[in-house]
Design brief:
The complex is a heterodimer of chains A (253) and B (274). Chain A has 253 residues and is an alpha/beta fold. Chain A has seven helices and ten strands.
Chain lengths: 253, 274
């Protein structure tokens, strides 16, 4: 994390959508460099284009102008070297936990599949559930499966689009600390989209704050706190105020 | 007899509703009570109207025994089921792959969807003259008609299922670079399967309706023909009603059988509220 090699580079990225003949500016001139092994949160209100930016970085959508490069290579299509974790369960409900996790390993010989999938399932705490179908799992466990499926292919970059948004607040806390543990263990670059200020402070090394319509970068806040982070510390409060200010919301209600 | 039946039915129903009988028991016994009351009303209607043509429940029950003993029932049931089975399986064998491809490929969809939608509203019954022209009176025509009646709901249902695959699942497949047969086997087919099974279920129900009509109009065997024959052979309405009941019972069994497909782990996710 200290070598600071640029991994994902956004240059002048803009995106427009045609909505009933009218142009809708979703993103305007996004310039951002995410370093290798960094955990960056994209924070902003709903509809600020942060998910669109992630979709463009994932290769699912094309920017109207500008470029996104990973290791200097222009992104044009989805690739298993960078894996998406969706909010609404991208895992396949028709396949068992095991079959979901080995999805990205299907071209490998089966003994290799077994070693990797076994390790990853262990890592996300799903041992014993290999034969279970997602329907029988709780929301948190489904997201563990999805994270496991992503990690199984040892991606360079993880794109996480509000992955814990559908979970209850206690499960969310657990999942965040699990994510930090896994991130420290495997060291992937993570771009994490959220609209939850606390989530951003708890996870990120840097928080990129978006303003809404058109989405622009309102500011970037470094979070220089060691994990595990003390949610009650004075510094935590200071950063929170800073982020609320950038978002243009009052922290007093 | 009427009064007795209705009294038993109403009494038992009131007893069941009044006491704390488990839901499972009620599920079985309440319909039995209602049926008893309806049979009582049927009998009452026959007595009051003084009809000599329409059969009473007792006469229908006797007719039941008569068809079973005459051994015609077996042959006609087999004839109907034979046509439905092969027509239905043929339609599934062609309709599911076609629906998968047409649903997935936008170009094929553009080219074929208008034709499919244009042929779909034509009642299979309207095809009877052509079916007889091509296949003669017999199993061939029956199978062809059932094929037609099942083919459109299965194909259209499969197409719709594929086009409804959630964006998240499509993108997951793209993210892991699935293409061609791999994509169809691991994502397109399993994602559509619950809805495909629903369309199979609907088609089988329709097939069972259509075969009876087809046999009444253009065939010389089968349960539909049995009904026609009973009416023509001296207005045996007791046989007509008994056959109708048998057709209904076989329909229930067919539906129960095809519903077993919904119970596999691979498709159960499609039928529960998420």
């Amino acid at each position: 994390m200290s070598d600071k090699k640029p991994k994902v580079v956004f240059e002048n990225v803009s995106k427009e959508f045609d909505v009933k003949g009218e142009k809708l500016h979703v993103l305007e001139d996004i310039d951002l460099v995410v370093n290798e092994g960094e955990l960056v949160c994209l924070l902003g209100p709903s509809g600020c284009g942060k998910s669109t930016l992630l979709n463009i970085a994932g290769g699912f959508e094309a920017p109207t102008s500008g470029t996104i490069k990973i290791d200097g290579e222009l992104i044009t299509a989805p690739d298993p070297r960078r894996v998406f974790v969706f909010q609404e369960y991208g895992i396949f409900p028709w396949a068992s936990v095991w079959d979901n996790v080995v999805l990205g390993l299907r071209h490998l010989p089966s003994d290799k599949q077994h070693t990797i999938a076994g390790e990853i399932i262990d890592l996300v705490g799903l041992s014993g559930f290999e034969k279970t179908y997602p329907m029988a799992l709780s929301g948190g466990m489904k997201q563990r499966v999805e994270v496991a499926r992503a990690l199984a292919v040892s991606p360079d970059v993880l794109y996480m689009d509000e992955p814990f948004g559908a979970l209850d607040s206690l499960t969310r806390l657990t999942m965040r600390s699990e994510l930090i543990r896994i991130w420290k263990d495997l060291d992937p670059t993570i771009l994490f989209v959220t609209h939850d200020v606390d989530e951003a402070i708890q996870l990120a090394e840097r928080v990129v704050v978006f303003s809404s319509r058109p989405g622009r970068i309102a500011g970037i806040v470094e979070i220089d706190l060691d994990h595990p982070r003390d949610l009650g510390s004075a510094q935590y409060g200071v950063i929170k105020n800073q982020l609320y200010e950038l978002l243009g919301v009052s922290h007093l209600i | 007899m009427t009064a007795a039946l209705m009294a038993i039915g109403i009494g038992a129903a009131l007893f069941l509703l009044g006491t704390r009988t488990p839901a499972r028991v009620q599920n079985v016994l309440l319909p039995v009570c209602v049926t008893t009351i309806l049979v009582g009303l049927w009998d009452l209607a026959c007595v009051v109207s003084g009809t000599t043509v329409f059969p009473t429940p007792a006469k229908t029950w006797a007719a039941f025994g008569e068809i079973v003993e005459s051994e015609r029932l077996w042959g006609d049931t087999v004839a109907s089921l034979f046509r439905v089975t092969w027509g239905f399986l043929g339609a599934a064998a062609v309709g599911i792959p076609l629906g998968l491809v047409v649903g997935w490929s936008t170009r094929t969809f553009r080219a074929l969807n208008p034709i499919i939608q244009g042929l779909r509203p034509i009642s299979p019954i309207a095809w009877i003259p052509i079916a007889i022209l091509w296949f003669g009176i017999g199993d061939g025509a029956g199978i062809f008609l059932i094929f037609l009646s099942s083919f459109f709901p299965i194909t259209v249902g499969t197409m719709a299922a594929v086009r409804n695959i959630s964006l998240v699942h499509q993108r997951s497949a793209m993210n892991f670079q699935m293409t061609g047969l791999d994509l169809f086997r691991r994502v397109v087919l399993p994602a559509s399967l619950p809805q495909i099974i629903t369309s199979l279920r609907i088609s089988l129900g329709v097939a069972w309706l259509v075969i009876v009509a087809a046999e009444m109009v253009g065939m010389d065997s089968g349960l539909g023909y049995l009904i026609n024959d009973a009416r023509n052979a001296g207005s045996r309405y007791d046989l007509v009603v008994a056959t109708m009941i048998i057709i209904g019972l076989i329909g229930i069994v067919l539906d129960l059988l095809i519903r077993q497909l919904e119970k596999f782990d691979e498709v159960r996710w499609g039928y529960v509220n998420r």
